[in-house]
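The instructor's notes for this session suggest beginning with a concrete chain rather than abstract definitions. Hand out the sequence below and ask the class to guess, before any prediction is shown, which regions might be ordered.
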Amino acid sequence: MQMTGMPLSGVRIIVTRSADQALFLSKKLRNLGATTIEIPMIEIRPPSNTASIDSTIQNLGKYDWVIFTSVHGVESLFRRMAVLHVPITSLNSVKVAAIGSATSAAIERSGRIPDYVPSEFLSERIATGVGGLQGKRILLPRADIASKKLPLLLRDRGALVDEIVAYQTALPRELTHDRLKEVLQSGVDVITFTSPSTVRNFAIALRYVDVSKDLGHARIACIGPVTAEAARDLGLNVNVVADPYTIDALVEAIVIDLGNA
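After discussion, reveal the predicted structure:
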């Protein structure tokens, strides 16, 4: 769909992405007339202990696959590699997979082209799409609270999976219950969620007190089914689920939803 004019004029939208990623989504929404309120629900921090990731980086050659499930995973691993003076070319002997176009683009910026990106950005697709896994060693550099679904699927197919904490996610220090309540009470039309972590931390910030009631008439827009499932688990009524699971598709889906509301 070609979007013209200012279809989001007068619409107030909360962007819950981490501070380093919020601008990309906010700019796209503002270009369509929206007023965006950036309230990051996650803060990305280095691992509290780097011994495990450092040891893994020094032995990348033993793996058959490295599977990245987020941009943060890519950036965190590559940043640590730079600290240890381990070149990106160390991955040349290893196959690399990425769940999602943004994650793939982050890998490509380093000069490495992913060997596999599934057409649907789901754990099931990557677990079956990377080929035979019996006896293969797979590295998953992820968040400290990452879902166990993907490693379980990979192990079910016979893979030997190592999970390492490449980064930690935390509730931003400046995010308070009062700040979030104040914004919600000022009137919000749409709340965007781009990961299960943003949903869970949103509920934590609201202290789990009747989360859906605090939203007023705000519509819930999620980047994909995994995030939408996390929202529904908290009792939220999800109005928008992007397909494909990208920022551009999320923006377009919000426009369509509000046009039909």
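Then share the key points. The domain at 12-42+172-260 is CATH 3.40.50.10090 (Rossmann fold). Residues 94 and 206 are 43 Å apart (CA to CA).
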